[in-house]
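Hi team,

Filling in the usual template for the complex we talked about on Friday. All components are listed, including any nucleic acid strands or ligand strings, so the model treats them as one assembly.

SUBMITTER: L.P.
PURPOSE: interface mapping
COMPONENTS: two
RESIDUES: 225
SEQUENCES:
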Amino acid sequence: NAGVTQTPKFQVLKTGQSMTLQCAQDMNHEYMSWYRQDPGMGLRLIHYSVGAGITDQGEVPNGYNVSRSTTEDFPLRLLSAAPSQTSVYFCASSRGKTSGNTIYFGEGSWLTVV
Amino acid sequence: GQSLEQPSEVTAVEGAIVQINCTYQTSGFYGLSWYQQHDGGAPTFLSYNALDGLEETGRFSSFLSRSDSYGYLLLQELQMKDSASYFCAVGGSGSARQLTFGSGTQLTVLP
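RESULT (copied from the run log):
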């Protein structure tokens, strides 16, 4: 059982470039989220989805887009990369609402914007 | 909004007991969760408290007092592999009960 799979693991972007972080889960979870984690800080919610076709903004959504065309996939798009978006990105899924249900995280994507 | 406070670092010796505290301020409260994260790894779920009291899972226990907006994670019989960051998180009132995470406590277990 693969769980939550993120790609790529590492990426270096130039300022202004765009890219998509891929996330897929095979647990048939309705809830999926993207977080970013900066050094010495906790995880901050970027965007989340409560089901296919439904997405909403989290705490730090600016500069990111998401879509949820299937239950399995929840890609995160950086529209025009900025150095401030250098971070570790985690995709996560849960069977139900994220509080009260175990959240399963992917292994993370290390992004550097130069 | 929501905010959480937890100590940035805690150090203990192998075999000891350590308590990591977490205080929170939230406009809507839907439980307190704890996550463990080893360096370079993904966070993993440890425990969840929706009601006041103690929840025990093996060597780990978690406590919640809603009236004090306070909780803690208790780790017993510390092992070297317990060296990691520990995050508390509170669920909010949004549609997904989105979690807001604390900044994490780096636990170092010494031999």
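MY TAKE: The CA atoms of residues 47 and 103 of chain B lie 17 Å apart. The radius of gyration of chain B is 13 Å.

Thanks, L.
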